[in-house]
Specification:
This protein is mostly beta strands and 153 residues long. The protein contains 2 helices and 12 strands; from the N terminus they run E-E-E-E-E-E-H-E-E-E-E-E-E-H. It holds the Pfam family C1_2.
């Protein structure tokens, strides 16, 4: 069965990665394993978490406006600065176009889920996580659980 996702033109199929194998999520740009949605024609993969992320949410760190999930940063630099973890991102992000407020898709869901505009709790991707947005390591070390995000220079 194929599933549609706003971020990709082709249908995606649910796939269970084999034990020990890993994909690179085309959404959040982080490695992952387990259930993924895949387009084998394009080698496009999404963590189940990224696939199921709601298109809009209310977030406790930005209560003024709802945040909208976009498939890539809308800035000319093609990067965004996450207002939650203070790292630069290049993939899926929730943004407020009125305030230039941006958060990584996983940072948005690391907060308590009752504040979100949907009622189901989303499982997080398989990040090794000794990091929380409330207690960020800043400046981030090389051991960041989000290897494809970096501190702006």
């Amino acid at each position: 069965m194929e599933f549609k996702h706003f971020s990709h033109g082709h249908g995606l199929v649910l796939h269970q990665t084999g034990q020990g194998s890993e994909i690179h999520c085309s959404g959040c740009k982080s490695p992952g394993s387990g259930n993924v949605y895949a387009c084998w024609k394009c080698n496009y993969f999404l963590h189940e978490h990224c696939f199921r992320a709601t298109r809009s949410l209310s977030h406790p760190s930005h209560p003024l406006h709802p945040l909208t999930l976009v498939p890539y940063p809308t800035y000319p630099s093609t990067q965004f600065f996450c207002n939650s973890c203070n790292l630069v991102g290049i993939g899926f992000c929730y943004c407020c176009s009125e305030c230039d407020f941006d958060v990584h898709v996983h940072c948005a869901h690391m907060q308590a889920t009752p504040h979100l505009s949907h009622s189901t709790s989303l499982p997080l991707p398989n990040f090794t996580n000794n990091f929380t947005p409330q207690n960020p390591v800043y400046p981030p070390t090389q051991n960041t659980p989000f290897p494809n995000y970096h501190v702006p220079s």
